[in-house]
Amino acid sequence: MFEHPEIVSVDTVLQLKNLNLPNYQRPYKWSVKNVSALMEDLEFAIDQTNKYPDFKYRVGTIILHNDETNGALNIVDGQQRIITLALICKALDASGSVPILETKLSSKVSEENIRRNFLAIRSYFAEKSSIEKKRFIEAVSSDLEFVVVATKSLPEAFQLFDSQNTRGRALDPHDLLKAFHLREMRDHPNEMKHTVDKWERTDPKEIHILFQYYLFPIKHWIEKDKGHRFTSADIDEFKGVSFDLQYYYAMRTVKGMPVFQIDQTFVSGKNFFEYVEHYLNLLSDVKAAVSKAELDLFLSGTGVGFSYAKQLFYCVVLYYCDRFRNFDDRVIKRLYAWAFMVRLQMQKLGFDTVRNYAIGEKVGDKETIPMFYLLQKCMKESDVLRIMIPMLSSEEIRYSPSSDDKILLLSKVQRIMGLSGGVE
């Protein structure tokens, strides 16, 4: 069955006894709102079948991996929709068998969401007449259809998943990276399960911020490339190197794990998830070090331009700490002065200007220094303290949303650099 893409009824899929939720699947996370939206779609479909006898409604495409080792049809894509439709069938016929709902769940998140959604679906049908319920049952067996794509190759199944999810509503780049690196772990199913469980406990917003505002721009600024916003087209930069390659650089990378550097590659698979965890922790340590140095008092400005300078500051401190594994207050304060100099220099500060400043391009008519590039060239921490931070004269300061704000920020930079008089 499913040797080729097929269009089959929802009931046909739900009655498959070998349909299985593999360990690498993320938890079932649909909310009551998602369920409600699906119910509205199904009601529309049922209305259409009443008007047009031959009407069929495609609920969606599902991707399955036909695992020949145990005969299971593993769900690669479509889990949320399949489980929700299974819950609908169970609510309509409490005594009926829906094999996928008998699968043992390893996630408490899945269990809680299934319980909550089942109660919501049962309440929904409590208000329906027996005739309306019957129409739903008939629709599941004859009018509602899945497009089923199955393959015996797990890598091919993941490739289809990537393709499917980058066409319609694109997944976030880090979700595509997750799918890629899980594919690299396919020979270690237990490790995959543990990795997925740990990943799902991490706030996806934190992962998005880490890549979008830190790792991706830093990787480009080191190379004097101003870069752009991180998108799914850029995920190759974080695919790492395969453990199986025998190239010297790959062998050296394998031996270096799990020591990470932003400007160095890592081994694909498990190391990617360790890489993400490592930099989430390091970023947290950086912010704690900034607070310890009492610099958080200097990061309380307002406005878009100030927030860009603040992001630039955290990026450069993260890269410095990534390179030298140290939190020297003297260095961090000098990096503060460098990062906020661009705020003083500009009347209005946008992200494009920050990117130019980061790679050492001219800002206005003033020369700047490529701090990330210079940090990469430093072989020891004392080299960092030798990097000259050019100061602005009072006449060169352009930032003036109000005189008080300008004087306050100027005062902060002076204090950081140990200057007691005017900036000359």
Total domains: 2
Proportion of beta-strand residues:
5-15%
Distance between the termini: 79 Å
Tell me the Rg in angstroms: 28 Å
Class per helix and strand makeup? alpha/beta
Shape: elongated
Low-confidence sequence ranges: 419-424
Kindly report the spatial arrangement of strands forming the biggest sheet: 1-5-3-4-2
Question: Count the strands?
Answer: 5
Helix fraction by DSSP (H/I, runs of at least 4): 40-55%
Question: Which whole number gives the mean pLDDT?
Answer: 84
Largest pleated sheet = 5 strands, mixed
Number of helices: 17
Query: Which H/E pattern describes the elements?
Result: EHEHEEHHHEHHHHHHHHHHHH
In short:
Residues 191-395 form the DUF7834 domain. By secondary structure, the chain is of the alpha/beta class.
Describe it.
This protein has 2 domains: 6-169, no CATH class; 207-416, no CATH class. A hairpin with a 4-residue loop joins strand 3 (57-67) and strand 4. Helix 9 (204-222) crosses helix 12 (304-324), helix 12 (304-324) runs parallel beside helix 15 (371-377) and helix 13 (329-345) packs antiparallel against helix 17. The protein has helices at residues 10-14, 32-51, 79-92, 108-126, 130-143, 154-165, 173-183, 189-200, 204-222, 248-256, 270-292, 304-324, 329-345, 351-358, 371-377, 381-385, 403-416; strands spanning 6-9, 19-20, 57-67, 72-77, 144-151. The longest helix has 23 residues, at 270-292. The radius of gyration is 28 Å and the shape is elongated. It has a 5-stranded mixed β-sheet, with helices on both faces. It is of the alpha/beta class and 424 residues long. Residues 419-424 have low confidence and may be disordered. The protein is 54% helix and 7% strand.
